[in-house]
Write a structure and sequence with these properties.
The complex is a heterodimer of chains A (320) and B (175). Chain A contains ten helices and twelve strands. Chain A has 320 residues and is α/β, with parallel strands linked by helices. In chain A, β7 and β8 form a beta hairpin. In chain A, α1 runs parallel beside α3 and α7 crosses α8. Chain A is rod-shaped, with a radius of gyration of 34 Å. Chain B has a single domain, classed as Butyryl-CoA Dehydrogenase, subunit A, domain 3, CATH 1.20.140.160. In chain B, α1 runs antiparallel to α2, α3 packs parallel to α7 and α7 packs across α8. Chain B contains eight helices and no strands. Classes of the chains: A alpha/beta (320), B mainly alpha (175).
Chain lengths: 320, 175
């Protein structure tokens, strides 16, 4: 092949650009002028244009099995989306805390005790979960959670995703626990009772040992029938006491543990629509299994209860 | 980007991403896998995509990366080349004379493009089939817009050289 004249070599990129429609008008005009005079370049331009227009046939030509591919993609994406949690770890006043959510709702809150990175979390060991580090959505949750544990907010109206529950029973325990109102406590036996399994007290306590959503599912409001603040986040009874104190529930140090001060709390008997003084009728002698205790009249009334018409806690509130 | 916008993105672009990958791999089963991989990756990353970003160019960049990884195994590249030859043999001999010639020329073009170095092939496909601008192609190939253009031009030169002397220039000009 003979070498092209240098003027042709120089104009070659412009010629290519013109052939495939990339060139501006000045470039195209320059190529036009040159190819009018230069037959080999004119021929080149025609060849490139032919290639360009042939390639045009590729556009818009449907590819085989497109529909099928779309369906497969949809199902795999749906599966991934179901399994995906976005999370972030925050240095909270309660220690490093991990918050994770799915498209359905908040699915995991975890106190990190072994170290403040994801590898130390229980979530990292849950099978089938695809956890992605992310910020924005989870950050707003953290701000609300902070306000909540600092007592500036009494509700977390978050959609919850309880799929990390390990069984139907576990899920039922979490749901029953989630219904305990702010500023109130119930016993493990009481939760078992609500679930229609009065003998399952130990199973309830076991189930709450792994609460994927502490604070939001307020397992800190579940206590022993003795009134003792048993087991929380491993053995962080102080944390349980602190969370309860924010809600106005006082606990006193007993011999081996902390106990709620029963005589300083209003009581509700089972599903009674009223709340009573701790001295009303036989309430003082009753087991905590059937009672919900409230830190104050405000808390009881915020939960929709009315003052008992016998003991009239509204007229004779507990003396502080 | 939120989940709803991501749904729209999938609905709008999955076909062209799949076509891009069919054109890149020449095998529909592989293109299927790679398209799924592309959108799964996109889902994992979509929350970090700024609202004003060019989502289409972003998807093509992911697909290009997925394709590049796929072709890292040299044997696969050879398979793709072989696959396009097979298709070519299958489509031979159909239609009236002029069309056959044209189809033959197109099939030859497929073969030539399949034989291009990967970056040139990707750049050429992105530019000529999917109309991406050189900035977007540069992002896909992790190079400068100038090298992106150079890849496209180099692809063209090679195609022309490979087709020289063939019947290709007799092909119907659709302009």
């Amino acid at each position: 092949m003979t070498r092209k004249p240098s003027v042709c070599q120089k104009i070659e990129p412009a010629l290519l650009a013109t052939a495939i429609g990339d060139a501006d008008t000045t470039t195209a005009a320059r190529v036009e002028t040159h190819t009018r005079a230069c037959a080999p370049c004119r021929e080149d331009l025609a060849r490139y244009r032919a290639i360009d227009s042939a390639v045009g046939a590729w556009r818009g030509a449907p590819a085989p099995a497109e529909e099928l591919v779309g369906a497969r993609l949809t199902s795999r994406l749906a599966d991934l989306r179901r399994r995906t949690l976005v999370y972030r770890i925050f240095p909270s006043p309660l220690g490093p805390i991990l918050i994770a959510r799915s498209e359905e709702g908040v699915s995991c809150i975890e106190y990190l005790t072994g170290g403040s990175d994801f590898a130390h979390s229980r979530l990292s060991r849950v099978e089938g979960v695809e956890a992605l580090l992310d910020g924005a959505e989870v950050e707003a949750l953290y701000r609300e959670l902070l306000e909540y544990v600092e007592g500036q907010r009494t509700r977390l109206e978050w959609p919850l995703d309880l799929r990390l529950a390990r069984s139907e029973f576990h899920r039922a325990v979490l749901q029953a626990t989630a219904r305990i109102p702010y500023g109130a406590v119930r016993s493990y036996a009481g939760i078992a009772d609500v679930l229609g399994k009065p003998a399952a007290t130990r199973a309830v306590a076991q189930a709450l040992r792994w609460n994927p959503l502490p604070i939001v599912v307020p397992c800190h409001r579940v206590i022993g029938t003795s009134g003792a603040l048993t087991g929380y986040a491993g053995n962080r009874i102080n944390l349980k006491q602190r969370l309860l104190a924010v809600e106005g529930v006082q606990a006193r140090r007993a011999e081996h543990d902390f106990r709620v001060v029963r005589e300083a709390m209003y009581a509700r008997d089972h599903d009674d629509p009223a709340y009573c003084l701790p001295t009303c009728g036989s309430i003082g002698q009753r087991s905590l299994a059937g009672l919900t205790l409230f830190a104050s009249r405000e808390r009881a009334e915020a939960a929709g209860l009315t003052p008992c018409s016998d003991c009239r806690p509204d007229l004779h509130p507990i003396a502080r | 980007m939120d989940a709803e916008r991501f749904d729209t993105l999938v609905a709008t672009h999955h076909r062209e991403i799949y076509r891009y990958l069919v054109r890149t791999t020449f095998r529909t089963s592989e293109a299927d896998d790679l398209a799924q991989e592309t959108f799964l990756r996109a889902y994992r990353a979509h929350r970090t995509l700024p609202p004003d970003a060019n989502a289409r160019a972003w998807l093509f960049a992911i697909a290009t990366n997925v394709a590049k990884n796929h072709f890292r195994a040299e044997s696969r590249r050879r398979r793709a080349h072989a696959a396009v030859r097979e298709t070519r043999n299958e489509t031979d001999g159909a239609g009236p004379e002029g069309e056959t010639l044209f189809n033959e020329a197109l099939a030859l073009l497929d073969t030539v493009v399949a034989g291009l170095p990967l970056k040139q092939r990707l750049a050429f496909t992105l530019r000529k089939v999917h109309d991406l601008d050189y900035d977007a192609i540069a992002r896909s190939l992790e190079c400068s817009p100038d090298s992106a253009r150079a890849h496209v031009f180099q692809a063209l030169r090679k195609i022309r050289r490979s087709l020289n002397g063939s019947e290709f220039s007799l092909g119907r000009d659709e302009r």
